[in-house]
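Bug #77: duplicate submission created two jobs. Keeping one. Sequence:
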Amino acid sequence: MTSPKIQKDIVSVCAQETVKAIIDDLGGDYFGILVDESKDISHHEQMALALQYVDKKGQVNEPFIGLVRVGDTSAKSLKKAMYSLLLKHSLSPSKIRGQGYDGASNIKGKVNGLKSLILEQTPSSYCIHYFAHQLQLTLVAVAKKHKEVENFFAIIANVLNVVGESFKRRDQLRDHQAELLEKLLESGFEADDRLQAEAFLSKTNAFDFVFLLHLMLKVLMMLNELSKALRGCK
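Kept job's structure:
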């Protein structure tokens, strides 16, 4: 059981049985597709595919069924990879009745976009943009219009990047947050990282940063409720 090969085989079998149960639950009925792009730790492009369907109890399900490595993220490549995965699980592309994407430029195009390629073959595969993602895009656009808010999020992103480079730093920050932030400066950093971390510490101790921290917390808490409503979360 401790052999990496045995562990991988067990995980693979579990994945196959899980997907088989999902396909059986779908029962050959119509379904929607939810597609997104991601990169693995080696920076290879991947396509994540989930189904969306209504089961026999009238409940909407959105199970993940596969992750496929793609050579590039052009619409034609994504379509080929997606159809290959669907056919692998005996799912006919002609049964697609809905499409959902993240709004990436190679997907949302009217001519070369993936949704257009699928609509050409399956006219009933209507595409509706994620409402929650539209909210996120709007929030990002508004934040970038305000210099102080944009800088605030840039500082947070950079702090997370510095801390995230080390598992030890992540664990320390997660366990004790602010009280250990200064201690992190004293150990576990290279010279360049130390200078960068000291600069971030100075910025995070400033009044403007703390004020925006509390302000954005309240704003994001309110928007979280709206996001849940748009995503249909219970």
